[in-house]
Write a structure and sequence with these properties.
homodimer, mainly alpha, 2 strands
Chain lengths: 187, 187
């Protein structure tokens, strides 16, 4: 892993490219609800409910999971790290405890509203001087606010990837020999 | 690979879920330009021009590559397979031969227009009875129209994944220990 990262560092044009910035993070965070709306609204249920395997998330599930993150993970843990009182330990995050009965439209609206509020909280509560504040992750131990906030961004992107991959899996066999060229079907 | 696929087949609820359909494919194909517009428009150039490595595509490059596919791959090869005359051999596809001087806005508009025209051609020229028509791929040999058309869909999704992954790599180091949970940074 270490070697791979060194190699990757070598290839980029400057270390500035790798620095977390609240403003740049918000560019991604604010787009996710809109990307989900454009990608998922009106899709046939055969796409929306498809799963790679029995226990895997369908595209619909992903939206539910993201809502849970807005409610119980990103901002609540951020507040624990910013607070000068109380325990620094994060409560565990229940990644599947979302309401599976809600429609896509209800979920999308809920996610949009929560995300908008949470971006406002991020923008008003945090500055760069807070980045090295810490909390205690149930598995990793001490983590910094900067790591947590960068993870919020990458977490969005990994779940967009998960949706794209789930959709792609419907045609995993149908593409025939092209599977060799299609990385999304190989990971 | 064979074992993995069998396992996956076992998990899905019905084989119908895996069958290529023109109408369902168009649902994805028609969304891609809109997803790209929502995801990329207005992003800081630091995001738009980021690359995982020297030779990797930036998000901007991906749009150029997709335009090239619309012009020289999906429909031209489809027409070769549908034609009763001429060679069945596909000309090779130059995946990097796109115009790197165009702005994001120009590229997005170009891609939207080409995709709309190409979906119209797909809708009017092809029916299920054509799915087993064949062409000769420069590397794979004989391939079917159904494989080619399914690949068009998965190709969109793999490049959306590529963009998400490229954006995520900016924070590959910054996320700290969370890298273990973020699949997009591991593939």
């Amino acid at each position: 892993m270490k070697t791979l990262f060194t190699e990757y560092i070598y290839h980029i044009s400057g270390v500035k490219n790798l620095v977390y910035s609240i403003q740049e993070a918000i560019e991604i965070l604010s787009r996710t609800p809109r990307v989900l709306r454009v990608l998922l609204t009106g899709l046939d249920p055969i796409w929306l409910n498809f799963r790679k395997q029995d226990q895997a998330f369908s595209p619909l599930d992903v939206v539910g999971h993201l809502i849970l993150g807005e409610k119980t993970d990103w901002i609540p843990r951020m507040k624990i790290m910013l607070s000068s009182e109380g325990s620094k330990e994060f409560p565990p995050f229940d990644r599947v405890g979302f309401d599976k009965s809600l429609s896509l439209d209800v979920n999308l609206k809920l996610f949009e509203d929560l995300r908008r509020e949470n971006i406002d909280i991020l923008r008003t509560m945090v500055t760069e001087t807070d980045f090295q504040r810490t909390g205690i992750h149930p598995e990793f131990g001490e983590v910094t606010l900067e790591q947590h906030l960068a993870t919020w961004v990458v977490h969005d992107l990994t779940h967009l990837f998960q949706i794209n991959q789930t959709l792609a899996y419907r045609y995993k066999e149908t593409v025939g020999p092209w599977i060799d060229y299609l990385k999304i079907l190989q990971v």
